[in-house]
Amino acid sequence: MPQPFDFYFDFSSPYGYLASVQIEDLAASLGRRVNWHPILLGPMFKETGALPPVNVPLKADYAEKDFARSAALFDIPYRHPKEFPINTIAAARVAHCLTQEDMALAAKFCKQTYVAFFADNQDIRDLEVLRSQLQSVGADAEAVLNQIQTDEVKQALKLAINDAMSRGVFGSPFVFFDDEPFWGFDRLPHIRLWAQQQGKVA
Amino acid sequence: MPQPFDFYFDFSSPYGYLASVQIEDLAASLGRRVNWHPILLGPMFKETGALPPVNVPLKADYAEKDFARSAALFDIPYRHPKEFPINTIAAARVAHCLTQEDMALAAKFCKQTYVAFFADNQDIRDLEVLRSQLQSVGADAEAVLNQIQTDEVKQALKLAINDAMSRGVFGSPFVFFDDEPFWGFDRLPHIRLWAQQQGKVA
Q: Is B72 part of the contact surface with chain A (CB cutoff 8 Å)?
């Protein structure tokens, strides 16, 4: 069985959202499935000293333009969120719980929650928004929302983020394809080229 | 006459090098020429608080891998320079002088000097290396190497970099296509998509 893509993303990352729309088709075209890994950029930016592009002079205007333009170029619905960036720890905990139980369900939740934030201007910090996302993908919303309050789940997400960092993840989206690392929505075409050149096309 | 591409680059920028190999074909395919604008990232990074990726923990290993891999994926010769990044002010001044006199000659010099640094492991800080680059493109090496010692040229490059920053340039490579800004080697495919969607294909 070929190794799935490991797809790391923060729900507050616009390029993570764009990648979430394409990652499954790309993986499938290369004979792979996708393991979804919700992470938080906060602890990673602490490590790298990076700032979100929208907080950097000169870069901020370009960044917002590029989010929307990249989406348009690839026919992906996009409305820049009213509040941005936001703390996405609740959504990440929910997604983490789902990945532990049912990856297909988790994938559905992640894709939908990204759309809610980056196309429908919903506040995904709001537990009621997360509840309705959970319900609409057919998860046991009540159970999951209880789980994310537990120390066990809080700790598990932290550990998962540390594991990601140990593996070299420092941004979103970040993909491993047979342990080869690719950072950024703009690297998705590189993944296909790399697969072709390495003879990894299924 | 359609507006040329404005192509901004630092000679120490690997992605600038990769873009220098493709920019003229891309522009030509869209019915455009290229104006080459040598800049220095130093003053820009001061403004944005950015660090070269190779100086950032976690990012450094990935960055070096991605330079070489991106080159390989697009069939561009690449050998990571022994010393990197380096101060490219002399090369930038030379290139700036040439752009003021003969853009075609400047383009040749820029492409060749990039190859010298990123494929042939030459030290482009060395005035003798720059002299031989100038000679090989048929420029008056002596005259140009004298010019770059003058306050006039030093000042002119500074002004050009300030103009670039006023226009929104904060990295390398940076391209304007009809005043639409694109940052990064990975945005070259976006330029073509954008041109198509805006009906700008010649």
A: yes
Task: Give the tokens for residue B60.
Answer: 């450094």
Helix (H) or strand (E) run with residue B182 in it:
strand B180-183
CA–CA distances in Å: residue B79 to residues A49, B63, B116, B188: 28, 14, 10, 22
Look up the pTM and report it.
0.94
CB neighbour list of residue A26: distance below 8 Å, 6 or more residues apart: A5, A188, A191, A192
Tokens 């395919």 correspond to what residue? B29
Give the integer Cα–Cα distance in Å for A18 and A32: 19
Q: Please, what's the b/e burial string for B135-171 (b: 16 or more CB within 10 A of its CB; e: otherwise)? A: eebebebeebbebbeeeebeebbeebbeebbeebbbb
Contacts of B53 in chain A (CB under 8 A): none
Residue B3: closest CA among B168, B178, B163, B167: B178
For residue range A37-57, what is the model confidence (pLDDT) as tens digits?
999 999 888 877 777 777 777
In chain B, what residues touch A51 (CB-CB under 8 Å)? 49
Q: What's the DSSP call for residue A4?
A: P
On whether the CB atoms of residues B7 and B23 are closer than 8 A, the answer is yes
Residues 30-59 of A with CB under 8 A from B: 44, 47-51, 56-59
Per-residue pLDDT tens over the stretch B68-100: 999 999 999 999 999 999 999 999 999 999 999
Q: How far is CA B16 from CA A2, B9, B76, B125, B134, in A?
A: 36, 5, 12, 17, 20
